Amino acid sequence: MAGRVAEEHPHGADRLCAAGDRVYSRAVRRGRVPRTDAEAVPCLLELALLHPDPDDMDWLVPTSPQEVMTRLLRGVYDEVSASQRRVGSAVAAFEWYAGLGRRLGAPAAPAEGSAIRVLDGLSRIQAAMDEATEACTTEVLTVQPGGIRREAELTEGLHRALALRGRGVRMRDLYTHVARHGQGLLNYLELMGDTVEARTLDEVIDRLILFDRTVAFIPANADRTMALELRHPALVEYLGTVFERLWRLAIPLTAPLPDTGIEGISHREQSIAALLAEGHQDAVIAERLGISVRTCRAHIARLSETLGAASRTQLGVRIAQVGLDGHRGSGLPAGALTAPDQGSPSVR
């Protein structure tokens, strides 16, 4: 039975079937629907969008749209975090194998075309990037961590970007949400026109540049004075898959960030609250979101004020109570927080 349901309704709560959309919307408008109305859409029960009315089992009541949104955002966050952990493990493994090769007496300068090359020094990195740019004919995928892009960073790679645009190569860039506030990035995207498409996330993996799904570059040390040039098909394919997963979860730069559903709490503060709930320190949170520690602490102070928390311990409790940690809590006392009017639900 479960297998047949999955085949007939192969979707999640983020993209309901037409029949499910109609029944769920009707349940939200009216407060409940007869159980018979849901017989054709078992997906709504499977996805916990409808559940039995404890006062009358012949009726079904809807899960609130706000709770569904919270659940979806938590799922996105978990998916991004899992991808980041997998890429971090892969990078650590690359460094270990590269170091092992040197200890075993591997040549200091591997032959051209080898699966993994260690590029030591900015000049070697730039030369390898220029070579990959000249050979690129189809697409470039990049992940740019950190916050607002500095003018020097944008200028350094501008000649490569212009050369690619001149040959009709498409480019897709991933940034953190903080990068939206950088005028330099906006100027760069305006210059490049529709050749470049940009999206943003709360957090992204470390820097990645991928040319034509054949060669990738990733940092090999913390200060980025060393890089790994990867040409092994399996490694490059893996990194391309990670990029596509993040791209699907990211928000176009031209689109606004989603509302948190809680008055007085911004999208960035929601991200900070989730990381605080995981036990991260201020410096770690700031680095992951691409903001300064000072800015991070200012947001935490506003969170405390909005949630009425007098200490970090109490703030953690309040974050859990209102569901900013990704889980639905028991809720604050009536009137402690107000959520904006949700209006008519729209489930994609």
UniProtKB/TrEMBL annotation:
Positions of transmembrane segments: none
InterPro entries: Sig_transdc_resp-reg_C-effctor, TrmB-like, Tscrpt_reg_LuxR_C, WH-like_DNA-bd_sf
Domain HTH luxR-type per the UniProt entry, residue ranges: 258-323
Origin: domain of life: Bacteria
Family annotation (SUPFAM superfamilies): C-terminal effector domain of the bipartite response regulators
Protein known as: LuxR family transcriptional regulator
Lineage: Bacteria, Bacillati, Actinomycetota, Actinomycetes, Kitasatosporales
